[in-house]
Write a structure and sequence with these properties.
Helix content is 76%, strand content 0%. The chain is built from three helices and no strands.
Length: 93
């Protein structure tokens, strides 16, 4: 395996950061679009009703909690694969 230069590593880290930010924004937009579509269905008034606001808030909260839980499980799984299984199993329970 060849060693990479610090500049090359920095560029790779920057690209990885950009990809992660892109994924965060994509996920955010997808969740809000989905929740808006599911919760807001009356367009005969200028403002969003309280029930629609509550529905969107609950939907987004559920989506965020689910995403966080999946991320934690993925990290635990990765830790187990790389040999840190004992540490990962004690977290998130």
């Amino acid at each position: 395996m060849s060693a990479q230069s610090p500049a090359s590593m920095s560029l790779m880290e920057q690209e990885l950061n950009r990809a992660q930010i892109r994924e965060i924004f994509t996920s955010f937009n997808r969740s809000h679009q989905r929740c808006f579509t599911d919760c807001v269905n009356k367009f005969d008034r200028r403002s969003v009703s309280d029930s629609e606001k509550n529905c969107v808030a609950n939907c987004v909260a559920k989506y965020m909690n689910t995403t966080q839980r999946i991320s934690m499980r993925f990290q635990e799984h990765q830790a187990m694969i790389t040999g840190g299984g004992a540490v990962a199993q004690g977290q998130g329970k």
